[in-house]
Specification:
By secondary structure, the protein is mainly alpha-helical. The protein has 4 helices and no strands. InterPro entries: PspA_VIPP1.
Length: about 230
Amino acid sequence: MNIFKRLFRIGQAEIHAAVDKMEDPIKMTEQGLRELRTDLAEATEAYAKVKALAIRTENDQLHRQQESKSYAEKAILIMQKAQSGQVDLGKAEELAREALSLYKRYSVESEELGLQAVALQQSSREMQRNAEILKENMEKWEKELRTLKTRLNVSNATVQVNKQLAHVDSNGIIGMLERMKSKVEDQEALSKAYGEISRDKNSKKDELDSLLKNDSFSIEKDLQAIKDKLGIS
């Protein structure tokens, strides 16, 4: 049974050690937010590039559309010149065919570019929406992180205070205060006693001095009486 208890204690120690080695969740969250800020910057840059490409594609589509329209008008114009005899009919038909070919090509390109522009605009809107969602979430998470850090600091301080209070022996402190109080009272009593002894000594000394002084005065009186009786001046 003892060996099983020992193995259980070893397992507990390994678990606690593993927990102690775990990374700080606050630091992990901060690192995650830093990575998200990088992702947001990259997403914003990608959105700007796609938006720019969409604008450029729209401009190209408009240009192809104008070119297509222009060559359609040129085909009609060259046949009108042939009709008026300004250009040989055979030559006019050849040039008109070339103009119509270019009209068709630019028309097809215009349609393709139009579809590409629509797809790019849709992609750019989705990227913008995702970037805005990421930005909103980051602001919310950063706010929550600041709140949690504040709560953690308060919690750590509270734990430290409570930990200190848990180690305080109230009875022991009260006992020490009582002993100090008793010692102070003893010192005060001793001081008072010395004061009374000093006052008693001074009182007896004064009494002795008074008695001695009275005896001396009496002796002088007796001596003077003897001198007067004998007639000694």
